[in-house]
Design a protein that fits this description.
Blueprint: H1 3-9, H2 23-33, E1 45-51, H3 53-63, H4 66-71, H5 75-79, E2 83-89, H6 91-97, H7 118-136, E3 140-145, H8 150-157, E4 164-172, H9 191-194
Antiparallel strand pairs: 1-2, 2-4, 3-4
Helix pairs in contact: 1-7, 2-7, 3-8
Length: 200
């Protein structure tokens, strides 16, 4: 598939059929994320890949509440996602990288010196490549941000305490009951409105 077709087809899918993702397809999607750009080639992110309800169950238990699950019109479709890729970033890896001789002098060996926390940016690049690779494979995918349960999730998945939970990418065959998002009515931005050539 051409890149233009992949980017045009990519959308957030929040309802899944529950059908398993073949191992080879999943491996190709995961490999795509490792090509993401990274500040200083640090690549300070890791992911815990959860496959099947016995592995995804603890993810949902940590990141949602009983009340939310009762009220959410999206919960039935989301919970059928056969794969959840939970992304964690490592701020310390960037401080270590920028303390190395080829980066020393930038002042970025101190966390407060980063005007933009590139560990979050780089993790976002990896998430986007997962979303695009899923579209390329003909699968549905969506990104769920970090809204609750970070500490519980780290504990449930055995993630080191110095990692920050960025969010998760859900992958699978789209289901048929995906309630439309009110945000979708806003449409995609026109490039003429987004890009200011020469100056604002």
């Amino acid at each position: 598939m051409e890149l233009s077709e992949v980017t045009a087809r990519r959308r957030m899918v929040r309802s899944f059929s529950g059908a398993a993702v073949p191992d080879g397809v999943l491996d190709r999607i995961l490999a795509a994320a490792t090509t993401a750009p990274a500040a200083g080639n640090t690549a300070g992110w890791d992911a815990v890949v959860l496959v099947g309800s016995s592995e995804t169950g603890p993810f949902w238990e940590a990141t949602t509440t009983d009340d939310w699950r009762r009220r959410s019109r999206r919960w039935p479709g989301l919970r059928r996602a056969p794969v959840v890729v939970a992304l964690f970033v490592d701020p310390g890896a960037y401080l270590e990288r920028y303390a190395q001789p080829d980066k020393l002098g930038s002042g970025l060996e101190r966390g407060e010196a980063w005007a933009v926390p590139y560990w979050m940016v780089d993790g976002g690049f990896a998430a986007l490549l997962l979303l695009l690779a899923a579209a390329d494979a003909g699968l549905g995918a969506c990104f769920l941000g970090n809204f609750r349960g970070e500490e519980a999730l780290r504990h449930a998945l055995g993630v080191p305490a110095d990692r920050r939970y960025l969010g998760a990418v859900l992958l699978g065959e789209p289901g048929g009951d995906d309630p439309p998002s009110s945000s979708a009515r806003r449409g995609r931005r026109d490039p003429g409105a987004a890009f200011h050539r020469g100056r604002w």
